[in-house]
């Protein structure tokens, strides 16, 4: 019985001792949160006075500030395109890694097959074409939905 009461007391008082952090997103938005962890390109956190776990893409987060110690940790650098957009800066994400990013538009293209090309090289050429298209329109992230000969499709995301 003592163990049960102790466990319940710990559960209810743990939130009062949780460290508060501030998440600063690349779009300028600030969130007061209790930081949990960074895993699989996602930042896990809970809002103060809540035990529910939330997540956001680490690519949407610029800084994580710890309020108690005045520590600041840069999570990711913002991707900016200079005069000529560089398609190599565009990052391919999974759909689950886009939480907190803004969906922009669908990108489509055509890829013809060349005799003697392997599937891997055709796939790589398709990825590069979609990245080039995204960079030319100023999108930093894409989620590839189809990378087949004759059918290139992706969804573009920004901050």
Describe the structure.
The chain has helices at 2-13, 119-136; strands at 21-25, 30-39, 42-46, 53-57, 61-66, 71-74, 91-92, 102-109, 141-148, 151-158. By secondary structure, it is α+β, with helices and mostly antiparallel strands. The strands form 2 sheets. Strands 4-3-2-1-5-6 form a 6-stranded antiparallel β-sheet, with no helix packed on it. Strands 7-9-10-8 form a 4-stranded mixed β-sheet, covered by helices on one side. The radius of gyration is 21 Å and the shape is elongated. The mean pLDDT is 85.
Could you give a short description of this structure?
The protein has about 160 residues and is α+β, with helices and mostly antiparallel strands. It has helices at about 1-15, 120-135, and strands spanning about 20-25, 30-40, 40-45, 55, 60-65, 70-75, 90, 100-110, 140-150, 150-159.
* Separate helix tally: 2
The CATH top-level class label of the largest domain: Alpha Beta
* Beta-strand content estimate: 35-45%
| Euclidean distance between termini CA atoms | 51 Å
Low-confidence stretches: none
Order of helices and strands: HEEEEEEEEHEE
Give me the Rg, rounded: 21 Å
Biggest beta sheet summary: 6 strands, antiparallel
């Amino acid at each position: 019985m003592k163990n049960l009461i102790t466990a319940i007391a710990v559960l209810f008082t743990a939130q009062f001792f949780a460290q508060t952090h501030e998440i600063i997103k690349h779009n300028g938005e600030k969130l007061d949160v209790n930081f949990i962890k960074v895993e699989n390109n996602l930042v896990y956190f809970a809002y103060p006075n809540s035990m529910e776990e939330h997540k956001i893409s680490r690519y949407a987060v610029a800084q994580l500030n710890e309020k108690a110690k005045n520590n600041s940790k840069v999570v990711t650098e913002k991707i900016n395109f200079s005069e000529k957009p560089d398609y190599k800066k565009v990052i391919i994400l999974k759909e689950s890694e886009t939480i907190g990013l803004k969906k922009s538009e669908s990108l489509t293209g055509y890829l013809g097959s060349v005799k003697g090309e392997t599937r891997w090289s055709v796939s790589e050429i398709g990825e590069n074409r979609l990245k080039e298209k995204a960079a030319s329109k100023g999108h930093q992230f894409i989620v590839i939905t189809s990378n087949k000969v004759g059918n290139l499709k992706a969804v573009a995301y920004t901050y």
